[in-house]
Amino acid sequence: MTSLANAQDAKTNATREKEERLSFQTFERWSARTNLDADVAMVYGIDATLPERIKTWRDRGYRIHVMTGVAWGEYQDYLFGKFDGKNHEDESQTERNGRIIGHGVNVPYMSPSESYGRYLSVGVKRALDAGAEAIHLEEPEFWVRSGYEENFKREWKSYYGEDWRPINDTPDASYRASKLKYFLYQRALSQVFSFVKQYSKEHGRDIKCYVPTHSLLNYAQWGIISPESSLLDVGCDGYIAQVWTGTSREANVYEGQLRSRTFETAFLEYGSMQNLVRASGRRVWYLNDPIEDNPDHSWDDYRTNWESTLTASLFQSEVHHYEIMPWPSRIFTNDYPVKERSERKEGEPVEKVGIPAAYETELQSVIHALGDMKQPAKSVRWEQSGTRGVGVLVSDTMMFERGDPTPSDSRLGSFYGLAMPLVKRGIPVEPVQVESVTKKSDFLTPYRVLVLTYEGQKPPTPAFHEALKKWVRAGGALVVIDNDSDPYNAVREWWNTAPNAYKTPREHLFQVLGLDRNFIGTAHVGKGVVVRENSSPADLSHREDGGNVVRRVVSGAATQVGLPWTESNSLVLRRGPYVVASAMDESVPNGPVQTLRGRFINLFDSTLPVLTQVELSPGKRVLLFDLDFNRSNKPRVVAAACRVRDEVATKKSLRFRASGIGETDAVVRVTAPALPKSVTVAGKALPASDYDFEGGVVRLRFPNSIDAFPVEMDW
Q1: N or C: which end of the chain has fewer CB within 10 A?
Q2: Angle 463-473/505-512 helices, nearest 10 degrees?
Q3: Number of helices (H) and strands (E), helices first, in the chain?
Q4: SS (H, E, C) 190-249
Q5: How many other CB atoms are found less than 10 A from the CB of residue 95?
Q6: Residue 65, class by beta-carbon neighbours within 10 Å (0-12 exposed, 13-18 middle, 19+ buried)?
Q7: d(CA 384, CA 449)
Q8: With a cut of 70, which residues of the chain have pLDDT below it?
Q9: What pLDDT is stored for residue 279 in this prediction?
């Protein structure tokens, strides 16, 4: 029986590792303090040291992916002519005043020519020759404020067949410049993807190509162009959703209040990235970062915001691949402030310390849980939320309206003015990618209500309107919130250059739907309904009653198609034994505080305590293990601040191997009938003071080791 169990455990472990559920990125060589025990090490950069750096991780059993920047990197050999004998400094993204936009000394953001794509392919070949099993081309980013470099002027002439003109003089010039920037990085990535696929074919390997990228929402707010949804059409096998505190703490306006809303923003950012791949079946990894790029925050701030973004990511139950952190060396070896700037007295010296022991233990407990998030669909369900089946339509063109002379609302109010009022009332609303609607006939099937505005974005093709009509006529509720005031309605595009020109794309949509161009109110179309509110979403975000206006219109449309409307001040999702919960502030006035009751292990506490009730007070984020889920008469590991392999259990014993990050403490929770008679760790008896028993759960404490060691428990 033991041999059979061992074989089954080995099979389970092999399956998990083949699936590559957990990964991280690093430029460094392997070290004990960065030994995260993930499945994949994404080794960064394509310089001459890459093969040796790869070897240090492969020798430790990691699968190897390689990540490198697309828009910037240590590419001076290309920039100054060593690569092909030509100087390429005029491919540096440049602002109107002549300033080069850089990411460091001699590291400009690139305005990519075709020769730059060839250069990246040569560098990627170095990674493939060194055995990389996948390539990640990170952050294809073209700044809206750039486009004054000579290369961009040449590309404009080639793309549009006309001379370049200052791109910030008119909305039309700004919009057309953004379309070209989108195309240029689409082309550059297509060049590299094509090279990798050909190399893969020639060498009999299955090498994947991924793009680590910020969300459409963040890029639009930060004024960056990136070919987001189009990459799946040019050879990309999936994405890493680069959502973290640094993007999600970006302030937005809700009911007139400007502030950071980290959880809610992250919820929408992760949702937009998941929506990109939902129709394709391709992979998306979710990034979680225990700190952020800004080194001036305190450890408490990092931890609180990480818990918010992590919780937000777990509400997307279709995703179970995670980049557990970037740059582990900056997390486990760098010092950060003890206090926030606002907590320090004037003139008080900044005290900095390394990562608190409790935080590094908590991180490892959560990492262990992330590796177990692939749960059967039948065991995934919402236990608390508002009405489901609601989406807000978003298009990549959202990035095209961010430049002078008339940029859309700086806080992306055209989107957050629609989405935030819903999330704040517990509606698990999803950003729905416009470009995907015409690629898959049933893409809109999961949605009963869709909210649309052409303020701040535009429909790429008229085919989108035909698809919307089909969905509405089949019983969908389309809510249009738009007052036609967006100056980008007048850019040279398909709706105003056709024989029957329209002032706005909304007018074309309404004609397709069989409505008067200037219709306002509610109309039945087939089995569905169309509701138009003649308001600016951005303006609504600045109004104290703006959220109520949005909810009134959307809830009314939902009831028109028979979808009951409910609101909640919390979201609670079960993923097998894991319970994910978030309680909103700025939510249902005087709403009841929900309490979760049962037997849970709190994974956001380094001591892994057993709780019998958890109160969801406003702002609370929760990740729990439910001890009553699929109870067994055999002991089993249910939570661990280490990686657990080769687990074998009988009614009277438990055996497993443990390993973790060097110089950290492990805490392990095991369900069991009683306190064990003996516990040995790495062949030595564990002192009785290092394990205890409460509520049917044993807790072990011992130092982690980078090399797996046996743990044996007997009753």
Answers
A1: N
A2: 40
A3: 19, 35
A4: HHHHHHHHHHHHHCCCCCEEEEEECCHHHHHHHCEECCHHHHHHHCCCEEEECCCHHHHC
A5: 15
A6: buried
A7: 19
A8: 1-18
A9: 76
Q: How do residues 191-244 score in pLDDT, each as one tens digit?
A: 999 999 999 999 999 999 999 999 999 999 999 999 999 998 889 999 999 999
- Position 607: which residue type? T
**What does the block give as tokens for 3?**
């041999």
**What's the predicted TM-score (pTM) here?**
0.96
The answer for residues whose C-beta is within 8 angstroms of residue 22's C-beta and 6 or more apart is: 36, 38, 39, 40, 321, 322, 324, 367, 370, 371
Question: Domain residues of the chain, as ranges?
Answer: 636-714
Tokens of 619: 């702002």
Q: Which residue has the tokens 């007139």?
A: 256
Q: What is the pLDDT of residues 533-549, one digit of tens each?
A: 999 999 999 999 999 99
As a whole number of angstroms, the distance between CA 76 and CA 414 comes to 40
Dist. CA 460–CA 419, nearest whole Å: 21
The pLDDT of residue 702: 98
Mutual angle of helices 171-202 and 114-129, in 10-degree steps = 30
What distance in Å separates the CA atoms of residue 230 and residue 671, rounded to the nearest whole number? 48
* CA dist., res. 613 & res. 630, Å (int): 19
Gyration radius (Cα) of the chain, Å: 27
What is the bridge-based pairing of β-strands 621-626 and 595-602?
antiparallel
| Peptide bond preceding 405 in cis form (omega within 30 of 0) | yes
CA gap 78, 75 in Å, rounded: 6
Could you give the CA distance from residue 103 to residue 343 in angstroms, rounded to a whole number?
A: 31
Cα–Cα dist 155/270, whole Å: 33
Q: How far apart are CA 230 and CA 678, in angstroms?
A: 58
Cα 162 to chain centroid, rounded: 39
Q: How many CB atoms lie within 10 A of CB 250?
A: 18
CB 582 within 8 A of CB 570: yes
Residues 36 and 325: beta-carbon distance below 8 Å: yes
CA atoms within 13 A on the CB side of 359: 19
